[in-house]
TrEMBL record:
Residues 19-38 are annotated as: Disordered. The lineage of its organism: Eukaryota, Metazoa, Ecdysozoa, Arthropoda, Hexapoda. It comes from Trichoplusia ni. InterPro entries: ARF7EP_C. This is ARL14 effector protein isoform X1. Residues 56-147 form the ARF7 effector protein C-terminal domain. Coiled coil: none annotated.
Length: 160
């Protein structure tokens, strides 16, 4: 009987140990779930605080602040618009390779009747581009001097 009672005690203690292990595992899972929930909760609270700060910054409190923000916004818009206008006016040739002021398609040899005496351009495939493509170009030839004689072709379209 001693062996049987020892076996029964071992079985009971084994069952107790297994139950305790299962209980510990359940508690650990529960603790992990609560930790995850708490982390998520704190993260949401943190996000809400950040968003509240952003909202406070963007929403003006008084009518005077609204007007000031409106004026600042319009001033920024007009500044950006003027920058764009200046940038566009700096290009002497437009996006098609024509002179922006007159709209003429002048060859880089400065002859108005020339159909194009240069090799085709690698960018726009025009025969009127010299060494550099005329599309959105910011400079223009002043004059062409031919060596060996005093013949000089001046650019009539060059604005000063």
């Amino acid at each position: 009987m001693n062996e049987q009672s020892a076996f029964i005690i071992n079985e009971e203690s084994h069952e107790k140990i297994v139950k305790e292990d299962e209980e510990e595992k359940r508690k650990e899972l529960k603790r992990k779930k609560t930790n995850a929930r708490q982390r998520a909760y704190y993260q949401r609270q943190k996000d809400l605080k950040i968003n509240a700060g952003i909202i406070k910054k963007t929403v003006p409190k008084s009518n005077a602040e609204r007007q000031r923000k409106f004026r600042q916004h319009n001033a920024e818009k007009s500044y950006m618009y003027s920058k764009l206008c200046v940038r566009k006016s700096k290009n002497i040739y437009n996006e098609r390779g024509l002179i922006t002021v007159t709209g003429k398609d002048l060859c880089d040899c400065l002859d108005e009747t020339c159909p194009g005496c240069h090799f085709p351009c690698s960018k726009c495939n025009s025969n009127k581009c010299g060494l550099e493509c005329r599309v959105n170009r910011k400079w223009m030839y002043d004059k062409i001097e031919i060596e060996g004689n005093d013949f000089v072709v001046k650019n009539d379209y060059k604005h000063k």
